[in-house]
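Work package 3, deliverable 3.1, input record:
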Amino acid sequence: MPIVDIHTHIYPPTYMDLLRSRTTVPYVRTFPDAPDSSRLIILPGEDDPSAPSTSRGRPIGPEYFDIKQKIAFMDQHKIDKSVISLANPWLDFLPEDEAGEAARKINDDVNALCAEYPGRLYAFGTLPLSANTETIVKEVERLKGLKYMRGVIMGTSGLGKGLDDANLDPMYAALEKHSQIIFLHPHYGLPAEVYGPRGSEYGHVLPLALGFPLETTIAVCRMLLSGVWDRFKGLNVLLAHSGGTLPFLAGRLESCVKHDGHLKKAGKTENRRDVWDILKTNIYLDAVIYSEVGLGAAVQASGADRLLFGTDHPFFPPLEEDAKEWHSVNANYSAISKAFEGNNGAAKDVLGNNAVRILRLEE
Amino acid sequence: MPIVDIHTHIYPPTYMDLLRSRTTVPYVRTFPDAPDSSRLIILPGEDDPSAPSTSRGRPIGPEYFDIKQKIAFMDQHKIDKSVISLANPWLDFLPEDEAGEAARKINDDVNALCAEYPGRLYAFGTLPLSANTETIVKEVERLKGLKYMRGVIMGTSGLGKGLDDANLDPMYAALEKHSQIIFLHPHYGLPAEVYGPRGSEYGHVLPLALGFPLETTIAVCRMLLSGVWDRFKGLNVLLAHSGGTLPFLAGRLESCVKHDGHLKKAGKTENRRDVWDILKTNIYLDAVIYSEVGLGAAVQASGADRLLFGTDHPFFPPLEEDAKEWHSVNANYSAISKAFEGNNGAAKDVLGNNAVRILRLEE
């Protein structure tokens, strides 16, 4: 039985060069007070020039960009195959005229990394979302010809107005036509004010633990409410972090839709594909949720045949500096083993068989 | 076996008078273009003077303030006892010098409503949070002497800076000392911008289905991270809507705490009460989640002995105007029956026994 990690990030050389060439968020920089270490700053909130460099962004080492470290991590945790993806913020920040070329270079770069380890590495590509629609669609078509590409990773901003933007329809049509799955991943979180005046005392906990999953949930609900899946019935989306909070809130979402006076008046409460239908037809969930409690809801919402193991590597690194084992990875392994106690077949599906089947990893 | 509804709101006469006397949010008003119906406007976003009155706030009828309708609803749905509570936004909006008296009047008013139906009605009181600490603490103590009061309902704003505000400690101490549970309920949701430019097309769905539960989750996580339960180990909180999203995200929350560099440096990642401990010791969850999927996670997180049936009446009214049965209530009944298939004892606990025990409803 193969173990497949479908949530594992890489900043390939071309992307690192891009980040190192920049001086505004997102960027990678070495600060004078710590000249032997680089830091990755990806959010405006992490870029306080008055703060010591050690609290700006996060240290970035070779585990972020050296493919050998990815393979070593896979070996350490008995992962047979990984579907690597560019980490946030992808290319969201690029000017329109640079995005197309950057996407091509980075996708070629990532595809070449996969080619170094045939059978072990596959990838989700990146789309130049700040470019014009034609360029975006062309890249979807081009990705189809790259041997190791199995879909695209994407944030929640779309062309700048979210994933319920009708201008995204040509992209959705192309992805549907070419059977490319979207790996939907958060980046922007929620406005800092929602965490209150003491928010920064809690480090990155609230934005990461709550903001990220909520961003994903809002994005997928906006897709749903705007009828993306009524127009593109074959469009598949893999949701990061077991769907954000969608499995838990799906019942409430359905109830709120059914009871909404505005939607009722617009004739949009009946004769629609409901969230449960879409969860079991168009949505896949990763199993990056660190507990059998949430995982159980994810299984019930989408089915054990639509759940896929992941690690979020290189984030959530070992808790002790000299530890080899990643606590976060073992938490996700343990959640699967507990959630499927007595059902070894389903556990194996989640750990690898589903990914092989859904992402065609034997081709 | 008694069936007990612990999530059911009332706008008692005193509070209705207050809302009718106001002209800014929150208020109740009859508009010239619909003189035979009143509307309740409780959020700034619902108060667009350029919109037709029928899209401002929501219609408010006697089901909001007539206790006879509450009893009829209970009879219709075989509910033996209800623990009624003032609906949002409670007294959050009152000036400092008015809040204390308003709270006393409204709490007396609600207690008197309960006295009309002895054995059937109990209540959560309301605190004058915009008053000074002394006034707040006095009202906690006074509530203890009102026969039908069993705790307090509260929003997430505290004294204006959230529930992780150290200035709330005297209130938490008083609530702990007098064994008064907090029923934590959302009102403010999330900033409208997070729903994107098309948010209003989806009616109230996104703020209600996602904003509300997230507001609750953020509030309880802020309490947790600020150490409220380290200082007040006996403080009990009942979370609306099955904890917002806490049961689903608890694993991620724990992982984010453990991996946070800032908290680690501050020595706050070890030797602390973790979220699972607090979920099973200090937190109770209502069962207002409309699906066995979310309910299952709630049960796993806090235990079937800490989950309490609720309806959210008079919100989520029947889908058809002439329907007697409330779809929302039946959805919650059905979720309990599915989640506890084959375990009738646990279902009965959730439907009523837990509430009787935890809230001392036989006294």
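The first strand of chain A starts at residue 4 and ends at 10.
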